[in-house]
Amino acid sequence: MPATQVCGKNAKWVRIGFSELTLGAYDSLVLESDGGDRYVFEGNHWKGRAFYSRALRGNCVDIHPSFGHSDSRYTVESYQFGTAALEGSPVVAAGAGDICDSTPADCGRTSDLIVAINPTVVFTTGDNAYNSGTLAEFNTRYAPRWGRFKELTNPTPGNHDYLTAGASGYFDYFNGVGRQTGPAGDRSRGYYSFDVGEWHFIALNSMSSGTVSSTQLAWLDSDLAANTKPCTAAFFHHPMVSRGVYNGSASMKPAYDRLYAAGVDLVLVGHDHNYQRYAKMTPSQVASSDGLRQVIVGTGGRDLYALNGTHPLLQAAQADTWGVLKLELTADGYTGEFVPVVGKNWTDSFSGTCNNAASENAPPLADFSFAAQGLSVDFTDDSTDADGTIASRSWNFGDGQSATSTNPNHAYATAGTYTVTLTVTDDEGATDSVSRSVTVSSPAANTPPTASFGYWVRGRQVVFKNYSTDSDGTLVTHAWDFGDGTSSTSATPSHTYATLGLWTVRLTVTDDDGAQRSVTRNVPTLNLTGTVDESTGTVNVDLRWVGAQTSSVDIFRNNTRATVTANDGAYLDATGLSGSGTLTYRVCEASRAVCTQTITLTY
Question: Are 324 and 118 in contact (CB under 8 A)?
Answer without folding.
Answer: no
